[in-house]
Amino acid sequence: MGRMIDGTWHAGKMTEDAADGAFKRQDAGFRDWVTADGGPGPDGQPGRPAAVGRYHLYVSYACPWAHRTLIVRALKGLEDMIGVSVVDPVMLDHGWTFARDHGGTGDPLHGADYLWQLYARARPDYTGKVTVPVLWDRETDTIVSNESSEIIRMLTGAWDELGATEGDYYPSSLRPEIDAINADVYDHVNNAVYKAGFATTQAAYEEAVEPLFATLDRLEERLTGADWLVGGQMTEADIRLFTTLVRFDAVYVGHFKCNIRRIVDYPTLEAYLERMLAIPAIAATVHLDHIKTHYYASHRDLNPCGIVPVGPALPWAGLVEPIR
Ligand SMILES: N[C@@H](CCC(=O)N[C@@H](CS)C(=O)NCC(=O)O)C(=O)O
Predict the structure, then answer these.
(1) High-pLDDT (> 90) share of the chain, %
(2) Which InterPro entries match (predicted)?
(3) Which domain holds residue 250?
(4) Number of domains forming the structure of the chain
(5) 65 C-alpha to ligand 1 centroid (Å)
(6) pLDDT 10s digits, 63-72
(7) 9 with 113: CB under 8 angstroms?
(8) Do both 272 and 202 map to the same domain?
């Protein structure tokens, strides 16, 4: 854990981001776009053209934000068009590393030892956090984007003419509704578990955990009688909720103290989670060993001895494979 200042790595603690006791997530620093023909992205700036083999993803199997990108890459059949490197799940003083101790891939592109070295390569005076996912452009040898919400939009559409699998996870007719649910789920679910977990005051913890469970209660109702959150079809809103739900009982209940209820206590949310896990392309992106090892062994300010719990026994554990 730590951050870069003017291109140099500085070690630090996760809870240092909790200035007044409340965890604040930093905005991503690289926000370019890949588009089908290299035309402007949604920001109006010139894009980079989609191509086979040109772009590469750096991910952690543990990270819910990176997980979104792996799911869309798999659903869109982009495995042969966009390569992936997987960091080691344990993130300590050097931040994310390319150690191979837990079955990570290393960095075949550059032979880097640490992810921060790629940030320095992309921007020698970079200041900020060193996060996954990273979408890398091999042709210009730099980072395109480190913002997962934007990377999944690129993967959804830009490679279609190059042979990606059909499937639009951000269809234009559903965008207002998807945007609304995404905003709610980001604030009160995806990021709320971190706000609860990294809070350093009782008040900041309770301010995160109460809306989290109020929102899970509402989602339980919303999904009763509906397979998907929006429009009767799977959209990015489902993918974004899924990556938090799938980690919840294994990690967030214990490690982040989000323990008012578990997902297994919500019959509809549990069925929804298992509906997504029944899709083989999605199940293949879930690796509970990396998920548990990352959180419990990395956040030593929360769990000083780094012991990774053996449980819980999850009803769907047989649908997913460990890495080692
Ligand atoms: N806005 C980013 C957030 C990514 C993020 O926070 N990733 C975490 C892992 S789950 C990370 O790499 N953290 C490293 C750190 O905070 O030092 C996105 O959604 O892509």
Answers:
(1) 94
(2) Glutathione-S-Trfase_C-like, Glutathione-S-Trfase_C_sf, Glutathione_S-Trfase, Glutathione_S-Trfase_N, GST_Omega-like_C, GST_Omega/GSH, Thioredoxin-like_sf
(3) 172-279
(4) 2
(5) 7
(6) 999 999 999 9
(7) no
(8) yes
Give the model's pLDDT for residue 16. Answer: 66
Q: Is residue 297 part of a domain?
A: no
Q: Strand 48-49 and strand 34-35: pairing? A: parallel
Pair (117, 27) in one structural domain: yes
Q: What are phi and psi of 85, to 5 degrees?
A: -115, 140
**In-domain check, residue 260:** yes
| pLDDT tens digits for range 10-63 | 998 766 666 678 888 778 799 999 999 999 999 999 999 999 999 999 999 999
Residues 13 and 145 in one domain: yes
Beta bridge partners of 56: 83, 136
- Kindly state whether residues 8 and 126 are assigned to the same domain: yes
In sequence order, the β-bridge partners of residue 9 are 4
Give the active site residue among 194, 205, 252, 272: 194
Indicate whether 29 belongs to any domain.
yes
Q: What residues flank ligand 1, with Cβ below 6 Å?
A: 1, 28, 63-65, 95, 129-133, 146-149
158 and 261 belong to one structural domain:
no
Q: Where among 240, 261, 279 does a domain terminate?
A: 279
Calculate mean pLDDT across residues 110-123.
98
130 near 60, Cβ under 8 Å?
no
Could you tell which of 1, 10, 65 is best to mutate to test the pocket of ligand 1, judged by most ligand atoms within 8 Å of the CB?
65
Residue 53 maps to a domain:
yes
Whether 194 is catalytic is: yes
Considering 55, 58, 61, 63, which one is annotated as catalytic?
Answer: 63
pLDDT tens digits, residue range 117-170?
A: 999 999 999 999 999 999 999 999 999 999 999 999 999 999 999 999 999 999
Residues 154 and 179 in one domain: no
Query: Which of 88, 92, 93, 91 has the alpha carbon at shortest distance from 11?
Result: 93
CA 225–ligand 1 middle distance (angstroms): 34
Please identify, among 113, 132, 162, the residue that sits at the C-terminal boundary of a domain.
162
Residue 109 vs residue 19, higher pLDDT: 109
| Count of other CB atoms within 10 angstroms of residue 4 | 20
